[in-house]
């Protein structure tokens, strides 16, 4: 059985892609497929998963895929340490990223600029069908003709031509990426999977040091101006206010039942992973009018103080990156900065501080 | 002291919830609970705010809060209030507050709300109006405005969206002779906060109807939620008003007041074009919406100004 695990955000079309993949695979003689999504009551932007199972016999097991031959990340921020646990030996991770394959330091991870490919055709990034093209290249069970037929069968007519064009561009990009990785010899897993081989190179890859997924290397250019990068450092923690607190211990029902009345709030999960953009505050422009704090739908903006006085700060555990704060700020003191740029800028700042400490 | 961005509580009573980024409803609940404080007891029917606030084992309310059957928000509020009072456990600063959506208020929960007002139970009912059943995937409610495309009133070649007009729930509630009712918008958040504060300090049934845009259902950018909520007021398609019933105003039929009476309106067409749900509307239909607005305001200015 070929199992595919899709990671996406609500609204990105992960389930549509999972379904189209199953539909395409099942067009081949004697092939069966199953596709279904998994999400909680969370909303648009929240991480969700979808699954596709493909087999030569009817599939009875309707449970979620624990380990997959292909794990697809429609959003790079969802690729976090521990990703390899979801991958079968010889499996391949496909991730929507503009980064170079070598920057992931693991041959099993194959980046594809799905946002770029889809934007070029659609005018906005809808990355899901790009990965159908990539999977055609990687797996012999899937043909481009069948993917195109699935698109024509399951998508609205006005989307057919554009998505067929996206698949064509994706096939080209994935073929080039595969050839590059085979030429360099680093992408053993991806190359082997494509050749439907016994994957001799994977054992070494499994044992290799964990890939660099969450934080891009410190040297990577963030594209942020140095003064904006400096502002990424938060002025201080939330003051002591009444607020539902994040609890990391296991839930004890007896305790839970007794903690009513304004200590009742009980949070076990952060919302930080929803965010692709983060607000960054320019303290020089900020007048402390507090309209941002007032209008934040998530209460993720608070007043903090440090050596330089009072300041507005962002609770990055719970900010969803909606950008309402930046819009209500009449002084232009809030910029929305991409999470990737923020992560790499913070890493370079840390490296810089370390260097300075060494010099001293 | 009047509450504003600087003086409002820094406590967060609705926090860590799973609403979409840029959700207007969650802003309304968050701001209202900051005014009402830690002893408020909240009740929410099926709807977005209960779906995103209670995800076991996660609880995003720092107040006591419970989920009610869909039709029963106001009835459950009556019960909570009576229960606390009979047990002698209702301090003066305990507001029993309900947060229901437009569907849970204007369609499904209307009879329970009418009953509570009739009994004049000491509860505050806040309707966060996002103009459709958003929790279940954007179906038309009786507060969906004319022309809005929803999954049950889809825009097609002949029909461009919802064919019915938005029900004037504020006037329906006021017609009961309720002690206090108000309309608001999260785009004018200080006005909303002031009205919640006013309602908190009045005894008897109080009702606040707050416009709370839903970027997912309205088809507008998530960061423009507050701007859209401001635009709907500025272009005159929503009004900010208060009603003080006989017990508060001393007048047998009560008193309506406009909280905001703009001399000129911004463009209705610009407001409608800022959202995907209105994109099928023809110029003729937009002119029709504008004419209806003018007629409404002629009445409002004559009787409520």
How are the elements arranged and paired?
The complex is a heterodimer of chains A (360) and B (305).
Chain A: E1 2-9, H1 14-26, E2 32-38, E3 47-55, E4 68-73, E5 87-96, E6 109-112, H2 114-122, H3 130-138, H4 144-154, H5 160-184, H6 188-194, H7 202-207, H8 226-230, E7 245-246, H9 253-258, E8 266-267, E9 277-281, H10 291-295, E10 301-306, E11 309-314, H11 324-328, E12 334-338, H12 339-359
Parallel strand pairs in A: 1-4, 4-5, 5-6, 7-8
Antiparallel strand pairs in A: 1-3, 2-3, 9-12, 10-11
Chain B: H1 24-36, E1 41-45, H2 48-53, E2 54-55, E3 58-59, E4 64-68, H3 73-86, E5 96-101, H4 102-107, H5 110-119, E6 124-129, H6 169-174, E7 180-185, H7 189-200, E8 206-211, H8 215-218, H9 225-234, E9 241-244, H10 246-249, E10 255-258, H11 268-273, H12 283-303
Explain the overall architecture.
The complex is a heterodimer of chains A (360) and B (305). Chain A is an alpha/beta fold and 360 residues long. Helix content of chain A is 34%, strand content 19%. In chain A, helix 1 (14-26) packs across helix 4, helix 3 (130-138) packs across helix 5 and helix 4 (144-154) packs antiparallel against helix 5. Chain A is elongated and about 70 Å long. Chain B has 305 residues and is α/β, with parallel strands linked by helices. Chain B is globular. The model of chain B has no long low-confidence stretch (mean pLDDT 95). Chains A and B meet through strand 8, helix 10 and helix 11 of A and helix 1, helix 2, strand 3 and helix 9 of B.
């Amino acid at each position: 059985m070929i199992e595919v695990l899709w990671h996406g955000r609500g609204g990105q079309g992960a389930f549509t892609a999972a379904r189209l993949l199953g539909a395409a695979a099942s067009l081949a003689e004697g092939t069966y497929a199953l596709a279904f999504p998994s999400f909680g009551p969370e909303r648009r932007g929240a991480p969700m998963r979808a699954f596709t199972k493909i087999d030569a016999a009817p599939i009875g097991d309707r449970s979620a895929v624990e380990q997959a031959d292909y794990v697809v990340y429609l959003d790079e921020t969802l690729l976090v340490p521990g990703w390899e646990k979801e991958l079968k030996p010889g499996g391949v991770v496909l991730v929507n990223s503009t980064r170079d394959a070598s920057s992931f330091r693991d041959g099993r991870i194959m980046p594809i600029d799905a946002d770029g490919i889809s934007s070029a055709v659609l005018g906005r990034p809808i990355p899901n069908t790009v990965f159908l093209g990539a999977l055609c290249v990687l797996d012999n069970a899937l043909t481009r003709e069948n993917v195109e037929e699935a698109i024509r069968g399951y998508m609205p007519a006005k989307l057919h031509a554009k998505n067929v064009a996206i698949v064509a561009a994706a096939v080209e990009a994935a073929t080039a990426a595969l050839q590059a990785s085979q030429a360099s010899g680093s992408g053993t897993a991806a190359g082997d999977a494509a050749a439907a081989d016994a994957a001799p190179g994977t054992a070494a890859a499994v044992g290799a040091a964990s890939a660099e997924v969450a934080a891009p290397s410190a040297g990577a250019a963030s594209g942020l101006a140095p003064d904006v990068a400096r502002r990424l450092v938060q002025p201080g923690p939330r003051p002591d206010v009444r607020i539902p607190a994040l609890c990391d211990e296991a839930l004890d029902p007896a305790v839970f039942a007794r903690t009513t009345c304004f200590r009742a709030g009980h949070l076990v999960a952060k919302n930080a992973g929803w965010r692709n953009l983060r607000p960054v505050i320019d303290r020089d422009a900020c007048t402390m009018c507090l309209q941002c704090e007032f209008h934040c739908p998530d209460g993720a903006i608070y007043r903090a103080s440090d050596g330089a006085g009072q300041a507005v700060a962002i609770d990055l555990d719970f900010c969803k990156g909606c950008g309402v704060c930046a819009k209500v700020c009449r002084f232009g003191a809030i910029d929305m900065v991409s999470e990737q740029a923020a992560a790499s800028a913070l890493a370079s700042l840390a490296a810089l501080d370390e260097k300075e400490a060494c010099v001293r | 002291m009047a509450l504003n961005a600087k003086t409002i509580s820094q406590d967060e009573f609705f926090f860590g919830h799973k609403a979409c980024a840029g959700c207007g409803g969650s802003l309304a609940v968050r701001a209202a609970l900051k005014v009402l404080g830690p002893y408020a007891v909240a009740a929410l029917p099926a709807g977005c705010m209960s779906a995103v606030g209670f995800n076991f084992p996660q609880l995003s309310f720092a107040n006591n809060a419970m989920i009610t059957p869909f039709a029963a928000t106001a009835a459950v509020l009556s019960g909570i209030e009576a229960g606390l009072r009979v047990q002698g456990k209702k301090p003066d600063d305990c507001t029993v507050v309900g947060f229901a959506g437009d569907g849970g208020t204007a369609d499904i929960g209307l009879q329970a709300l009418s009953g509570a007002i009739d009994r004049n139970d000491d509860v505050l009912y806040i309707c966060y109006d996002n103009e459709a059943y958003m929790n279940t995937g954007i179906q038309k409610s009786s507060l969906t405005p004319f022309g809005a495309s929803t999954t049950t009133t889809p825009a097609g070649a002949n029909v461009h969206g919802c064919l019915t007009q938005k029900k004037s729930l504020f006037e329906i509630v006021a017609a009961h002779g309720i002690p206090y009712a108000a309309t608001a918008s999260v785009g004018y958040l200080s006005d909303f906060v002031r009205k919640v504060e006013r309602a908190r300090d009045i005894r008897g049934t109080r009702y606040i109807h707050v416009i709370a845009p839903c970027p997912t259902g309205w088809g507008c950018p998530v960061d423009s939620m507050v701007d859209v909520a401001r635009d709907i007021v500025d272009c005159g398609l929503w009004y900010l008003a208060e009603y003080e019933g006989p017990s508060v105003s001393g007048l047998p039929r009560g008193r309506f007041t406009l909280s905001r009476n703009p001399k000129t309106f911004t463009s209705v067409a610009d407001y409608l074009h800022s959202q995907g749900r209105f994109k099928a509307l023809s110029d003729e239909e937009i002119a029709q919406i504008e004419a209806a607005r003018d007629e409404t305001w002629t009445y409002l200015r004559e009787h409520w100004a």
